[in-house]
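Example record

The entry below shows one chain as it appears in the dataset: sequence first, then structure tokens.
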Amino acid sequence: MIEKAMILAAGKGKRMWPLTDNTPKPLLPLGGTTIIQRQIEELTKVGVKEIHVLIGYQMKEISNHLGNGEKLGVKIKYIVQEKQEGTGHAVLQANGKIKGEFYCLNGDMVIDGSNLDRMSNGKNEIVMMTTEVEDGSRFGVVQSKKGKLVSITEKGVSGKANINAGMYLFNEKIFEAIKRVEKSVRGEYELTDALQAISKDVNIMEYKGFWQDIGCPWDLITANENCIEDIEEKNHGIIEDNVNINGKIHVGKNSIIKSGTCIEGTVWIGENCVVGPNAYLRGGTVLCGNNKVGASSEIKNTILMQGAKAPHHNYVGDSIVGKDSNLGSGTKIANLRLDKKIIEVTHQGKKISTDRRKLGAIIGDNVNTGINASVNAGTILGNHVKVGPNTLVSGTYESKSIIV
């Protein structure tokens, strides 16, 4: 049994803008918990007792959130990466701190922990998981032969491909391999270069089950759709009479669901939330805490982060609404193109496909919309954006924009 693991959680996650400007990527909400907590849960299920978390960007927030791991049933130790110089450099920070075999996970993905057990065969070997995706252009494409690594192509090819799943079983040999590699053209020490250098010693194993790389904001919605189905039904709050519930729900402390509210599908409601009266929550919705969904508001498959509010006559579908953002009365967020085609967005200066037919808006923290504002499908609003009354918003807007 492998009892040690490492989670790489030091990066900023620039591609997750605007969500990671104020929140470290591992702490983004996922099915009622966080990305990193879900990984820790999967590791502990297979007997891991000690987890080394590599931190850098907003490290204090992560260490404060996880603590020493006692509440999670595991011992957590922290390794600080002061300067991010690539994935190889990240793993090398554990040299001298972890001895023997250990699992290593990229800190930005959802995994099925049953694959961890499959990797451990008692032979003290290096194992790399691969998974098949429809489009390999965003990932490192892996070629293998007879279960051994042949090559890894960074940012591979379009179309179906077997890619690096970001899930490994390592031993101390990996540190020696990393020490021998030179910086890549990006000026970083790449883990993939180290694996390529010892390819004959790297075993390739095919991943089974649900896997999701959370590289862009809409990937978090896709991951949440899957993970929320695992929630445990609990009610720590108040559910008034005349509330219609058809599905699994979790209700946190001091939350109240008011009369006339209808809930369909699996929904997670955090602490200190007010829902209703006469609100409509649909499957996949997560209220992270201190949220309000008020009269005649409908929320579908959406994450409302801490303090976000949709208090009056709102529709929000397939979206993420950032911390302390407020939707003015009558604000509607569309989630489907009229031609029903895949939604493309402009993100960090590039037009890219989201691979989703339904996507509303990605909204940063402290965003406010005026009454009767309309937000088109695939819109991205940075942090501290203000949208005037009766305004139609479409496209991508930088933080602190004022749109009238």
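Notes for this example: The CA atoms of residues 60 and 197 lie 35 Å apart. The radius of gyration is 22 Å.
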